[in-house]
Backbone:
């Protein structure tokens, strides 16, 4: 329920142009802020990545999450991962490349990228409230093989405020899926991060280019400003 004393809509100063959103039809979607991507010993590091590159997204997300909770916006967290028997993990994904540990192998935070393991869980700073929605997804996109479409329809959601990791992989895939399904996506630039800073930059450019071919891009300061200023 939206908080009656808070603004019901706001205009985000975004690129390629400002966008006015009604908070009752907007969901904050936080993509895969899991220990497996953010911490040493998880899936991200097994792929050879420097996980410290992702830490910068935590504070901006925490600030917007706090404001979204205060405003009463729908909050959706996603987690990438697989069933313990790997029945939802395509061999083409599990066998890919030469990681130090493969999906399902035992690691310091439990089995790599497996639901229910410590590494699969969301980092403490952004931990979901019991009232918030958690979508477990086997793929990079949050719509593929999940209940996300049903959830968004149930709550009458038309706009997604998207953040999380990584910019060019799960964030971009989800935004592309959402755009084709008719959702307006505003991607929070400093609330996303990549193991590759240049991919982060280009991933955001790809979204907002061509008049916003996939959506809009704004930083957390612009989002926070819009959420405190009523334009109704
Ligand atoms: N490897 C990488 O950059 N990302 C992923 O595997 N998943 C997500 O982005 N969540």
Residues:
């Amino acid at each position: 329920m939206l908080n009656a004393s808070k603004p019901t809509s706001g205009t985000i100063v975004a690129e390629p142009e400002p966008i006015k959103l009604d908070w009752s039809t907007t969901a904050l979607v936080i993509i895969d802020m899991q220990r497996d991507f953010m911490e040493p010993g998880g899936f991200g590091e097994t792929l050879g990545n420097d996980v410290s590159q992702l830490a910068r997204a935590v504070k901006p997300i925490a600030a917007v999450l706090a404001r979204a909770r205060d405003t009463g916006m729908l909050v959706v967290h996603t987690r990438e991962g697989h069933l313990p028997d790997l029945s939802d993990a395509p061999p083409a994904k599990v066998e890919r490349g030469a990681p130090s540990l493969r999906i399902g192998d035992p690691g310091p935070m439990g089995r790599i990228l497996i639901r229910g393991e410590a590494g699969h869980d969301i980092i403490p700073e952004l931990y979901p409230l019991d009232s918030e929605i958690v979508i477990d997804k086997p793929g990079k996109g949050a719509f593929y093989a999940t209940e996300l479409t049903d959830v968004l329809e149930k709550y009458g959601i038309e706009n997604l405020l998207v953040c999380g990791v990584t910019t060019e992989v799960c964030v971009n895939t989800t935004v592309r899926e959402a755009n084709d399904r008719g959702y307006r996506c505003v991607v929070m630039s400093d609330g996303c991060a990549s193991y590759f800073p240049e991919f982060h930059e280009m991933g955001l450019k790809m979204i907002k280019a061509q008049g916003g071919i996939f959506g809009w891009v704004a930083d957390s300061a612009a989002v926070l400003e819009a959420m405190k200023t009523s334009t109704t």
Remarks:
- The chain has a mean pLDDT of 96.
- The longest strand covers residues 184-193.
